[in-house]
Specification:
The structure is a homotetramer. By secondary structure, chain A is mainly α. The first copy, chain A, has a single domain, classed as Tetracycline Repressor, domain 2 (Orthogonal Bundle), CATH 1.10.357. Chain A has ten helices and no strands. In chain A, helix 1 crosses helix 6 and helix 5 crosses helix 10. The longest helix of chain A is centred in the middle third of the chain and has 27 residues. Chain A is elongated, with a radius of gyration of 19 Å. The termini of chain A are far apart. The structure holds a DNA duplex. Chains A, B, C, D: It comes from Formimonas warabiya. Chains A, B, C, D: Keywords: DNA-binding, Transcription, Transcription regulation. Chains A, B, C, D: GO terms for molecular function: DNA-binding transcription factor activity; transcription cis-regulatory region binding. Chains A, B, C, D: Pfam families: TetR_C_24 (PF17932), TetR_N (PF00440).
DNA sequence: TATGAATGAGCTTTCATTCAT
DNA sequence: CATGAATGAAAGCTCATTCAT
């Protein structure tokens, strides 16, 4: 697995290894030694690049988040129809989860382990994401495409709806057809379930 | 906090205490000693009732899950309109999260700590829940109230949409008006966001 | 070796063991594990009684110091002639060093390892000792037995003179006749070396 | 601080740096890296000149000792009166301590950290010093200036008396008038304290 | 049944030392 | 000669679990 970014640089090798091991074992069960071995470096070397286990965990999450965030932002700023844009966002989100399952698992369930300062960092990042979505919906309403609704709530519903598909993918190893899945989500989301 | 179930029985006292301590510290940082103290029993006594820390954690989650599940099932089997039923489900879910914040936090983010056997148990429980919802939607479609859609996906979307509201409540201490919030969710869910 | 106080109490066993191991290896080379083994308890048990290695070191020194201090004080308050009193003090000091060589070694050379707070504690104790001696000399001057001199400096000279004999005993395993040695010291100290 | 010997030579720079760092932190807390930095050389360079941390420590102490020893020997071989000679020795000893406080601290309390072979080296050096003093006293006795006493014991008492003044200077930062202090010491030492 | 003193496996982190450049 | 990135042995401390009482 690991995070797309290929590189021979040692720091990156360690982060990739960390992603893998943290994903398999969770924060506390993961041993620095195993991370080091996986990265094919000595235990001490890890500490040359990261001051502590927590710091390594943090930077690993950060890198993944940035990677995801960048592709999201690019999509939001693209010039396609609202519906296509949202569909693409849903697709990318699920694609990311499918591709980086291990990372997703950690991100979803382990960041409570971080000190509250770092937790805060990621909640702010999440808020930003919601805001980004929010504005997209706001645009839709201004243009008269969407009904007038509480943008932020809508954004949160959207995010939750998409994100909730990740659970079975991650934990039950389901591999749904993402193209079709995102189409359905958008369908439901735009037209509702009522006849 | 603790989980509604009042009892003077020692085992329950320990579970309640466990819920409190696990919620505050997470699985790994929680100490058996603190749980014992909080329950006002000796450390050894905990092991009379639970074979290990993990087992205690598991049973604690299980009890919370059952508590939640029962109220959900009751609602699903009630004889109100589909829309009101779903609204009530959303409301109950959010109410549960609001009431048992600490428990919710653990449930959402710590169960990865469990061995995969026990993790499995909860995923099955979650699947059951989704199936329960699924059937509700299926009924709606059979009755011609809802458009024909993939029931399971709809159920998942619904669950995800509702559940996603829990994050800010748990982690940012937001206390939204649940009555209104569930109304909005249902609104969006039935009619869609498109004009 | 160990410190006179016989006891089957576990805390004391650990302190005695600590005295032995710290003496042989010095503070940093001493391993908690070895101390535990020597005391015939588990590693964790040591931490039941002492919060840290440093704390154990501190309490060990403290106990030795008290043991020594008590016998010194008793002598100072006895009703013998000044000369005999000082001779007894010298004798006791050297006797203590001879008997508890290992402890003496640590006390003389390792307490720098302590945090400054604890270092302070022992310097104050040492000052007290000097003050105690000082008063004895003051009495002698008041009674006209001694020449008028700076009491504190005299006390320090006396202490240093006696104490300096400890080096060879501790580090070169010399075992001089303490009776005679203390007689000589007092002799020199009272009458001077000049003809 | 550092030890008087000015030089631009790299080895000396390292020793001077070592003296500083060892003095501040003690043997075990001192890091080779910090010593290297302070000497403005690379970490590996230190190992070009010294085979190990212990060796560096040893050579550093050795240099300090020689520096002290030389000035002492010069004084012992000078042609002044016995009393003045001893006074000068006391004065030089205390002066050295006052000037090189940090070094004194290490010398007094850290050399236990050395392997026993190196410890031995310094005890022999100390014995030499005592012997040197011993001979001075022997001369005094031969000349009929001093009472017939055990020379070695007298030398040890003298050394201890003088040295004991160092404690407060080093650890309590006292800065006594050394001229007066050494006069008092000699006074007491020659005439005794008795009336 | 209830207890808590005792235990020791297991983990993070440090830092002297090496060696390729 | 000089360097500093890389290393891994070593040690303090924690805490789930046991068991004698």
């Amino acid at each position: 697995m690991a995070l797309g970014f290929e590189s021979s640089d040692k720091k990156l090798r360690i982060i990739r290894s960390a992603a893998k091991v943290f994903a398999q074992k969770g924060f506390h069960r993961a041993k620095m030694e195993e991370i080091a071995q996986e990265a094919d470096v000595g235990k001490g070397t890890v500490y040359e690049y990261f001051s502590s286990k927590e710091q390594l965990f943090f930077e690993m999450l950060q890198m993944g988040k940035n990677f995801y965030h960048d592709s999201l932002t690019k999509e939001v700023n693209s010039e396609v129809s609202l519906q296509n844009k949202l569909k693409k966002i849903a697709y990318l989100h699920l694609k990311f989860i499918q591709e980086y399952k291990d990372f997703g698992r950690v991100m979803m369930q382990e960041f409570l382990q971080l000190g509250s300062e770092m937790q805060n960092y990621f909640w702010k990042a999440h808020e930003q994401e919601i805001t980004l979505l929010s504005q997209t919906f706001q645009d839709g309403m201004s243009q008269g495409i969407l009904r007038p609704l509480d943008c932020k709530v809508v954004a949160q519903i959207f995010h939750g709806a998409v994100h909730s598909m990740g659970g079975p993918m991650i934990f039950l190893d389901e591999e749904p057809d993402l193209e079709q899945l995102s189409t359905t989500i958008i369908e439901v989301f735009f037209k509702g379930i009522a006849k």
